[in-house]
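Bumping with the actual sequence this time:
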Amino acid sequence: MTVNAGKLALWTIAVGILVLGLKWLAFDLTGSVALYSDALESVVNVAAAIFAFIAIRISALPPDDNHPYGHSKAEYLSAVSEGALIVFAALLILHEAYQSIFAPRQLDAPMIGLAVNGVATALNAIWAVVLIRGGAKARSPALAADGRHLMADVVSSVGVVVGLVLAQVSGWTWLDPVIAIAVACNVLWSGWVLMRASIGGLMDEAPDQAVRDQVEALITQNGSGALQAHDIRMRQTGNRMFIEFHLIVPGEMTVEDAHTICDRIETALRRSLGPVTVSIHVEPDHKSKTDDIVELDVQ
């Protein structure tokens, strides 16, 4: 099933606004600093969802004279921006929690507030799973990042609910700001992880070894007639992978036969990996190498 990343991103904004409203209501009912921290993170979620929607629209634009390789890196910029927003929200939470440590207060209508927050958390959990799966299918870094962030938010929210229930049972009012500080630390960590992954995409990090093994296997299975492939390089940019390598063929092979082999390899790579741009440099057999190679059999 094809995933429409743009529609999913648009729905994420709507879900984010609904969750924000519920969490802010929970904070308003209780006056809890921990619930305030949870609501503040939802503000970031809405802003991040808007960034993601804009980035996905930009990344879908076709290549042009100024961007011959397309616009797909816009999604990484969105994810980096989201990470920066997360860090900013964590600092605001820490500031509020620090002040509340010295002036703890009893919560108003705690059970009602926790119930409202629980509904918002359940909605977030469902949508986080939708985004993570949809982002993987659409190969969208922005959607996947949004889903992972929402899942981190779910973990924080569950911790907030458990901690506040404990605070009500025990009467330890100081637990409220302490829980908020714990939420802030979790938010900071999720922001760092998100920014680290996105910066890796902007820096053209190579895919993991499993993807490289898959590419090498596809070249081997579909490169019959050639002798060797070497200097295989690849990078993932948004939902598109770029692959380039040198293909060694017998010196007497015609250009047409070499082109047929290249077409066969490119077709197999696209069928298995989705959107890819493949660049193959064909060379005669005296250009063969002894390292970083994939051996092929002449048939």
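The tokens above came from a reply further down the thread. The two ends are 37 Å apart (CA to CA).
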